[in-house]
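Subject: Cytochrome b-c1 complex subunit 8 structure
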Amino acid sequence: MGAQGGVEYSEDVPDKNSSHQRHNDIRHRAEPRANRLPLLQQGGFSNTIRRSRNQFLYVVPPLVAAYWLMEWANERNHYLNCKAGRALFEQEG
């Protein structure tokens, strides 16, 4: 047992005396006080929410403006290519 009270597991490759197999000794240590969910316990999730909230005003307004501009352009294009829009420009020209 280790100094921290962990449990050691040893795994050996079978048939150690075979010439084509190399002896591997793999040791795993399971600490009883291991931090299993470090991101949740150290505030990783809340930091992600905070950072996303801080970036909201930099991302959302340009996207809304671009959406509004595209809607306006599509409506204007539809009007200019319909019968009423063509008639308006024929009278002017």
